[in-house]
Amino acid sequence: MATSDFTTTLMVDKTPKEVYDAINDVRGWWSENIEGGTEKLNDEYIYHYRDIHYCKIKLIEMIPGQKVVWQVLSNYFKFTEDKSEWNGTKVVFDISQKDGKTVIKFTHEGLVPQYECYEICREAWTNYIQESLRDLITTDKGHPNSKEDDSFDAQLVEKWNLA
Predict the structure, then answer these.
(1) Dihedral, CA atoms, 76, 54, 128, 14, nearest 10 degrees?
(2) How far apart are CA 41 and CA 43, in angstroms?
(3) Which of 6, 54, 84, 131 is the most buried (most CB within 10 A)?
(4) Short-list 31, 27, 25, CA closest to 145
(5) Between residues 152 and 139, which one has the greater pLDDT?
(6) What is the spatial distance between Cα 147 and Cα 159, in angstroms, rounded to a whole number?
(7) Nearest 5°: phi and psi at 121?
(8) Ordered alpha helix ranges (H), the chain
(9) Considering the domain 8-143 in this protein, what is its CATH number?
(10) pLDDT, tens digit, for every residue of 57-86?
(11) Residue 92 vs residues 16, 33, 61, 154: alpha-carbon distances, Å
(12) What is the pairing mode between strands 67-77 and 53-63?
């Protein structure tokens, strides 16, 4: 059965361990503006980008060299009617090998075309995975959102129960 969850796949000339380590270096490819742990099972962190997007994420599955799964515990989008579209969704990184290369299958389970944020989120995830994560894996330098591009609004986080 076909799924409508957003998925993108990346193949690199690195080991599954190197790929796994890069995925867990979230500040190295997604955003430097992350508050909390991002490397151990049950770690929770808050991602934020200006006053546009905040979400609280928990690492719920980690199999070294094979898989990483994040659960979105709470979410806020400034630009959608339903501010909480990602609530309860999962972000899955499946790592495998094919033809001597490592394959990353990224799936945002629950990010579906019916969501108002789908197109902008699809474009953003594609850039983060196909460009920033790829470059972190292959050159040790990703392109995360920088701290200079952001401001953390603690009142908004409290208002939307993200803390």
Answers:
(1) -120
(2) 6
(3) 54
(4) 31
(5) 139
(6) 22
(7) -70, -40
(8) 16-23, 26-29, 118-127, 134-139, 154-159
(9) 3.30.530.20
(10) 999 999 999 999 999 999 999 889 988 899
(11) 15, 21, 9, 28
(12) antiparallel
CA dist 142 and 4 (Å) reads: 28
pTM score > 0.70 for this model?
A: yes
Residues 6+ apart with CB under 8 A from 33: 47, 48, 49, 145, 147, 150, 152
Q: Where are the domains of the chain?
A: 8-143
Give tens-digit pLDDT for 9-40. Answer: 999 999 999 999 999 999 999 999 899 999 99
119 φ, ψ (degrees, to nearest 5)? -65, -45
> pLDDT band at residue 130, thresholds of 50, 70 and 90?
very high
